[in-house]
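User: Okay, second chain of the day. Same drill as before: sequence in, structure tokens out.
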Amino acid sequence: MSIRPSQFDREEREVEFSRALAFSDGVFAFAITLLVTTLDVPSLSGGDLNHQLWEALSDIWPRLGTFFLSFAVIGLLWLRHHRLFSRVRQLDTMALVLNLAALAFIVLMPFSTEILGRYGQTPVAVTVYALNITFEAVAFIVMWWYCVRRDMLGETLTPSQRRYELVLRMVIPTVFLVSIPLAFFVSTNLAKDTWFLAFVGQWLVARVMVREGDLPAQG
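Assistant: Same drill. Structure tokens below.
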């Protein structure tokens, strides 16, 4: 029994979609797991090990904070990616390329996380980390926008829904980009403190825009 070309094409698209999703989830899982390698187990010998361990762990606290921040950022981007793919009904070659470009910056996260953990008091380390997150967030925005413009979603977004999603997605890259001049001209600690506004800012933006009538879409 022969298979009609249209049926074959549809099944082929479904297979390619599943492969793209599985590959993306694997990249996220690998990157978020690799973050733990940025934390070194203290090497102790002789003397009061309890006191040495306590001091060694105290030195690790800044790296631990960076670990959890990176974990939260990657986790949030994975949620966004998962929700987008749950709405996408088809993918073309350009969408796959954009997805790969976005995942490339996810893979870089353990590297920039370790740079920040080791040299977090320098503006250059803050810049490397902030640019990594900015580029990866923008790359995912570009992929989302491409899917919307090419009608690849299983729904039609209203102008208000598009505006809501775009503004919400822009919060993270905006906050991290603004932190760069703060690191150079004000304080690296202040720059890093502003990063937590990216999570609070999304909640505030969502509340304000929904109140103004820009109702969110799913994801």
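The longest helix spans residues 49-87.

User: Thanks, on to the next one.
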